[in-house]
Amino acid sequence: MAINLAVFLSGSGTTLENLLGCIAHGDVDATVQCVVSSRADAFGLERARRHGIPAIAVPKKDYKGTRSFCDAIWREVDAYPVDLVALAGFMSLLTVPDSFRNRIMNVHPALIPAFCGKGMYGHHVHEAVVEYGAKVSGATVHFVDDQYDHGPIILQECVRVLDDDTPDTLAERVQAKERELYPRAIQLFAEGRVRVDGRKVYVL
Question: Which of 108, 124, 126, 142 is catalytic?
């Protein structure tokens, strides 16, 4: 069954573009109802407009705290029929309303619980992995709770760290894995095949 998505972002929107491509090719049975950005200048908003999707800026700098900022975002989302929220490079801690518990997904560029948490995002993750000398990294799709990179894990796959890897070369392979896993997880949700029991997620 097709589901309605809201996509939250803070930057260029490459994850949004990949998701829209998967929807167009029939790999994800969903419609993006709105795109919300924590930055008014995020290029992801322009990507949304080019696809005819409502593009909403809720600049974090305009709010005094996380609670008021998140309340403003959820007020915007309430105007649309949304089954699932997909975070796509959303650079803010999100307060999760009870009505969206286990209905918000994120993808992280490492194998949670390694190399995750506050400050561990984007290139910082790949730099830390290479510096530590880890032999594997990867991508994790998880549900979102009120802590950074903490919600139940839905899908997770490894990417080898090569001896001559730089953060840039590792990032390329991890991002390719993210582009594969994230749409797959959203499609599993659309098919009603995801069940959460505490910290465990079962794919039916």
Answer: 108
